Amino acid sequence: MFGQRTTMVDRAEALPGRDTPIPAPPPHEVLGTSLTPTYPAGSEIADFGMGCFWGAERRFWRIGAENGIITTAVGYAGGYTPNPTYDEVCTGRTGHTEAVRVVFDPRRISYADLLKVFWENHDPTQGMRQGNDVGTQYRSAVLYHDDAQKAAAESTRDAFQSVLTRSGFGPITTEILPAGDFYFAEAYHQQYLADTKNPGGYCGIGGTGESCPVGIARTGE
């Protein structure tokens, strides 16, 4: 519908966007928590791009509140256009990737634990695509919020690369870059695969691990 742009747009050529954010999404369909700040004291944020954000978000919310997940949300990050719409992101002219935000309690689940979920539930070697989804909006990315997250992302990337190399796969193409603005996606995208919204919905990311090129390679083994 929009074409499949596989090269990043230059900042000067990016769509202008808008000053006004899209309306704030409602509370989490599954967890019942707020998707937008302010988050509970002591919580931390992790932002990831894993291809289709519907399945990526589901993979993280399924970890559960009892295991430290406070809320999850989908949005657009890593690009240039302020407050983009989904249709604009699909053109490849915003520079954004589809992203999932995970707000978590570090006393119950670590950032390293979340990185393990990230690496093992998509294929980080595919460049500007993820499976049949082709374009810059589907690229793999870790958007870190501090130096500790950056170091953890880089060290786990290197560990996972060793697993992939032994299995005959190519280099990881995941971007590891500072988290800039996170623009929340439209309400209908939030928890899209929840049983109460789209019980028959499909996304190849975040299910049984079929997107991982080594059949859920285990970085800790």
Automatic annotation (TrEMBL):
Any Pfam family hit? PMSR
Q: What is its EC number?
A: 1.8.4.11
Indicate yes or no for the key word Thylakoid: no
Q: Where is this region: Disordered?
A: 1-31
Which terms under GO biological process does the entry name? cellular response to oxidative stress
State if Metal-binding is listed as a keyword.
no
Q: Which reaction does it catalyse?
A: [thioredoxin]-disulfide + L-methionine + H2O = L-methionine (S)-S-oxide + [thioredoxin]-dithiol; L-methionyl-[protein] + [thioredoxin]-disulfide + H2O = L-methionyl-(S)-S-oxide-[protein] + [thioredoxin]-dithiol
Name the enzyme group at the top EC level. oxidoreductase
Matches recorded under InterPro entries = Met_Sox_Rdtase_MsrA_dom, Met_Sox_Rdtase_MsrA_sf, MsrA_MetSO_reductase
One GO cellular-component annotation of the UniProt record comes to: cytoplasm
Keywords of the record: Oxidoreductase
**Positions annotated as active site in the UniProt record:** 52
Q: What does this protein do?
A: Has an important function as a repair enzyme for proteins that have been inactivated by oxidation. Catalyzes the reversible oxidation-reduction of methionine sulfoxide in proteins to methionine.
Q: Which family does it belong to?
A: Belongs to the MsrA Met sulfoxide reductase family.
Record protein name field: Peptide methionine sulfoxide reductase MsrA
Q: Which organism is it from?
A: Nocardiopsis mwathae
Instruction: Print the organism lineage.
Output: Bacteria, Bacillati, Actinomycetota, Actinomycetes, Streptosporangiales
Q: Which gene encodes it?
A: msrA
